[in-house]
Amino acid sequence: MMTPIYNQFLTKMETEIKEKSIVVAQKYHIEVNEEGLIQALTNARKFYDEGYADGQRDAVKRGEWKKYGRNLGECSNCGEIVAVRYKFCPECGADMREVDHAD
Ligand SMILES: [Zn+2]
Asked: What confidence score (pLDDT) does residue 21 get?
């Protein structure tokens, strides 16, 4: 998901680029493909957002309970055996909530 502030920025930038690209191209004697440039910026942001999301996911320590009976479980992250009612392992802090495996 693209950040809203960047979208606003991109929209303003797109307008400015369209207005100025011919002038800039003439000044530096280079060919500017406006739509190509906008598409490149959009794609770059998409890759950034995806990389950021991956980084966030990796930074969060996760675990799951290996259950012993109804109430106790072993944390897959640290091996501590505690009550499985916790959303986070009280020993190591691992996030024990179910992970969305959509990707
Ligand atoms: Zn743990």
From this structure: 67
What is the C-alpha to C-alpha distance for residues 71 and 73, in angstroms, rounded to an integer? 7
Ligand 1 being an ion, which residues bring their Cβ within 5 A of it?
75, 77-78, 80, 89, 91-92, 94
Predicted pLDDT of residue 101 = 59
Domain boundaries, the chain: 4-59, 61-103
Query: How much distance in Å is there from the Cα of 82 to the middle of ligand 1?
Result: 9
- The three-class DSSP label of residue 65 is strand
| pLDDT beneath 50, residues of the chain | none
Whole-model pTM over 0.85: no
Beta strands in the chain (DSSP E): 65-68, 72-75, 81-83
Q: Please give the Cα distance from 50 to 47 (Å, whole number).
A: 5
Q: Is 95 helix (H, G, I), strand (E, B) or coil?
A: strand
